[in-house]
Amino acid sequence: MRKSFKIFTFLVVIAAMTFLSRSALKQKSYYIMNILMSNGKTTHYAPDISHLLESVHSDTFSAKTILRQGNGILFVETTDRMEPPSLVLCAIESAARVYPDRPVVFFMKGLGDIMTEEDENITRERFPALSSFQNIYFFPLRLNKLFNNTPLMDWFEEVNPKKERYWTHVSSDACRFALMWKYGGIYMDSDVISIRPIPYDHFLAAEHSSSTSSSVYGLSPFHNLTWLFMEDFAQNYRGDLWGHQGPKLFTRIVVKLCGLPEFNTIHDLMCANIPYLHPYRFYPISYGSWKKYFEVWENFPTFNNSYALHLWNYMNSEGKTMVPGSNTLAEHLYQKQCPTTYDYILKKNI
Ligand SMILES: *[C@@H]1O[C@H](CO)[C@@H](O)[C@H](O)[C@H]1NC(C)=O
Ligand SMILES: *[C@@H]1O[C@H](CO)[C@@H](O)[C@H](O)[C@H]1NC(C)=O
Ligand SMILES: *[C@@H]1O[C@H](CO)[C@@H](O)[C@H](O)[C@H]1NC(C)=O
Q: Which of 154, 235, 244, 299 is deepest in the core (most CB within 10 A)?
């Protein structure tokens, strides 16, 4: 009787072990075997194991666990750059403030592996302007892993980054689709300053009347629309055409699904059963007027009809930045939406 119970318990242990992650197994299986070998009191096995399972579960620290609710705010850096410009810091801080209950994740190609909460804490310290925000996370961006099991993998294996004219843009376009597929949530370009929560989980946005935005959009994980985006990316790839995989891809799909919705009022429309947001929500200042962000205004606009502001960094070839004391719209926005970054700039003079 006692022997058969011991065998039964052993089988339960084996079953439990198969649920443990591989890295956790290394540490924990030794411990489990020790209990099994040395402890004759079989009745104590079960509680021990359930406790182990719980602790192993909370040990697992990865983008997948942090983003498991599908409600993250996702930012991406596809170069090896590890010193984000102040606008990137401001974009991330403003998102962390506007969405305090949601994880804000910055995926960076230049980051080493992060396996534990301690790794994450150490990494946070590398970004002092952001380190006080417990809902900001940094995770490494590994393209081959990210594109695995998506329509982008074949494209990625064929393409030669060194020969691509717009590799930074094109790889960033591809990453946002694959990240949306695997994690869901809201994707934002790192030149988008959040000002109030977007009240939708699923949405696309218009950049202007005839173009859909690729800079901000939201979808749940494994959404079929994301699959359509990735298929279009791989099938119609033109690395030599700027924006072909970005706004133009979004526009192609929207045109295919619902024609090009026409805004006659300030209200949002619907496309393929999801909200299609008015250009004012993110682009109250259109790309032709991007310099207005770096100008002094008599009265600052309230942006009451906007959720976030796209600062059109790609138009900014002259490298304009927020200058403390300049009294520009950009300074006003930093002071209001990312005050910690603003203070950090004042102190460090970055
Ligand atoms: C990480 O930092 C948080 C906040 O400071 C702290 O509560 C937590 O204990 C730290 N975790 C580790 C493993 O160092
Ligand atoms: C996605 O799936 C939903 C529900 O299954 C369906 O109603 C919708 O038409 C699909 N959309 C696309 C773009 O295939
Ligand atoms: C914008 O919103 C603020 C506060 O919600 C309000 O005080 C202000 O009157 C609004 N401005 C406009 C132009 O609607």
A: 244
316 inside domain? yes
- Ligand 3 pocket mutation pick from 196, 266, 302, 306 by most atoms within 8 angstroms of CB: 302
Domain count, the chain: 1
Cβ(118) – ligand 1 distance below 6 Å: yes
What's the gap in Å between 304 CA and the centre of ligand 3? 6
**pLDDT per residue over 108-155, tens digit each?**
999 999 999 999 999 999 999 999 999 999 999 999 999 999 999 999
- Structural domain that includes position 326: 50-349
Average pLDDT, the chain: 87
Among all bound ligands, the one having the nearest atom to the CA of 220 is 2
Q: Is the CB of 122 under 6 A from ligand 1?
A: no
CA-to-CA distance for 219 and 204, rounded, in angstroms? 9
CATH of the domain at 65: 3.90.550
Is residue 17 a part of any domain in this protein?
no
Q: Can you tell me which atom of ligand 2 is nearest the CA of 228?
A: 13
CA gyration radius, the chain: 24
71: in domain: yes
Residue with tokens 């065998």: 7
- Asked, for residue 276, whether it belongs to a domain, the answer is yes
Rounded-to-integer distance, Cα 334 and Cα 343, Å: 9
Does residue 314 or residue 30 have the better pLDDT? 314
What digits encode the pLDDT tens for the residues 322-342? 999 999 999 999 999 999 999
Largest Cα–Cα distance in the chain? 87
What's the pTM? 0.83
Amino acid letter for position 300: F
| Ligand 3 in reach of 4 Cβ (< 6 A) | no
58 CA distance to ligand 1 middle (Å): 13
Dist CA 205 CA 141 (whole Å): 26
Is the pLDDT at 27 greater than 60? The verdict is no
Q: Tell me, what amino acid is at 293?
A: Y
